[in-house]
Amino acid sequence: MSKYAIGVDYGTLSVRALLVNIETGEEAATSVYEYPHGVMEEHLPTGERLPSGWALQEPQDYVEGLIITIRNVLAEKKVLPEEVIGIGVDFTSSTVIPVKADRTPLCHLEKFTHNPHSYVKLWKHHGAEEEALQIDRIAKEREEKWLPLYGGKVSSEWMIPKILETLHHAPDVYKEADRFMEALDWIIWQMTGEETRSACGAGYKAFYRHDSGYPTKDFFKALDPAMENIVEEKLDAPIKSIGETAGYLTDSIARELGLLAGTPVGTGIIDAHSSLPGCGIGTPGTMMIIVGTSSCHMMLSETEAGIAGVGGLVKDGIMPGYFGYEAGQCCVGDHFAWFTDNCVPESYEQEARSRGISIHQLLTEKLAGYKAGQSGLLALDWFNGVRSPLMDFNLNGLIMGMNLLTKPEEIYLSLIEATAYGTRMIIEQFEDAGVPVNALVLSGGIPAKNKMLVQIYSDVCNKEIRISGTDQASALGAAILGIAAAPERITGFKNANEAAEKLGKVRDEVYKPNPDNVAVYDKLYQEYKTLHKYFGTGENDVMKRLNKIREDRLSE
Q1: Going along 427-505, which residue ranges are E strands?
Q2: Mean pLDDT, 10 residues at a time, over the chain (556 residues)?
Q3: CB atoms near residue 333 (< 10 Å)
Q4: Cα 111 to Cα 323: distance, rounded to the nearest angstrom
Q5: Paired residues of 309 in beta bridges
Q6: Using CA atoms, how far apart are residues 55 and 197, in angstroms rounded to an integer?
Q7: Cβ atoms within 10 A of the Cβ of 431, count?
Q8: How far apart, in Å, do the first and last CA atoms of the chain sit?
């Protein structure tokens, strides 16, 4: 018999199952299930309208997707149940669900179907901005020691702000919930029948520390007296590190999946983090960047250091044996898409259609031969606010240097360069803190398709870059953690690090910095830093004042 592992990759709009041959590394079969309810941003299934900035999901979509995709990959390859040695799961985060002790989501209870706080709050749900500010203020007043390890600022995308938002606006939902969980942990609970929490989710999104646990009762009481005992009442469960076994398939779910009861299930991991093992990164020195609509930057290190704007620092949170760091940019592919959707003239659209290429390809072609600095433009990559290093979602994008000769492709180039400058700023934050970044690996559809972008990143950051060798890095990483959940006598691998080294994939091609471009981009980057400081650190809050004027007018 062959031996296979399955990686289940839960994204924002769909779930993917990947079947991997653990002896050859072959990605043998894949299946994708799009969530029927998608992302609920305007209204609930029952018709109630949602406020701006909300993003909810229906948890039943996760269960149906799990069953359908796994059955599909087994059928496609005609794999026997006993040939599957382990399953791993990755998930968006912080994607928070309130549930009963029997695993029932509150949104499935009749009395809560019309209450938006009873549904899954997706990672990009931004309804908890006020709560994040409150938590940030109180943590600073109390000089909480964990705060510097989260970059010194709390994000509304994390678990505790979303829970506090529920308490403030739907106290009946808060009271009824026996558990608030990452959807990652909830789906594994469905699979194994054992309630556990991933050190990855708890550490990066809920302030859990390997040496001291969650924040104290006094801290939670300072947020709201009703939260004083939240850990014991609604969060407490065994914490499992990445690379450990979370549990084993129950009889009932195994029958639905077409697998054997008792099949090991690995501890779940955040979807972006899963790309590290998927790209063969199991040791320090290489920064992994997932480049998509937004970007996530991850590093392994033997040392622990608080870094401004880093969204989390967790022991064994990404790979066993190391501290895992996470930073990120809110707007990358999102603002490339904004530009092509709104700012490209019809003549360009016609040319792209007539040639049968995408508008992105056309703009890239028109930039062939451009030299660094030739456009005279400089942009700030803040169109969705700033994650690292400022953690401020009330900032906006900026493009400067335009004149009546500025071409669309030059603006497009400036946006690409802006994301590279943002990445360089993150790299410098790491290196200043004593965490060396020797090389970069980029993953995601954008770097796989756009060599120009990768070369710009190499020139701006002055680092060698390689590209993921698979289009399914997160799913492959999850499968590798599924392998780690099974015994070495079955898999032949000691741990997740070894499995990642042998089965993770990067392309052979290496992008190297162009010295001429490096010199010019060094100058432009200094100007970027000037704008970053001026508009982002309170020297001039014009962006926030403009936001306030807009919000006031819209509310009239």
Answers
A1: 439-443, 465-467
A2: 96 96 96 97 94 95 98 97 98 96 98 98 94 96 91 89 98 98 98 97 94 96 98 96 97 98 98 94 94 91 84 89 92 93 96 96 95 97 90 90 97 98 96 93 92 97 96 95 97 96 95 98 98 96 93 84
A3: 17
A4: 43
A5: none
A6: 23
A7: 13
A8: 68
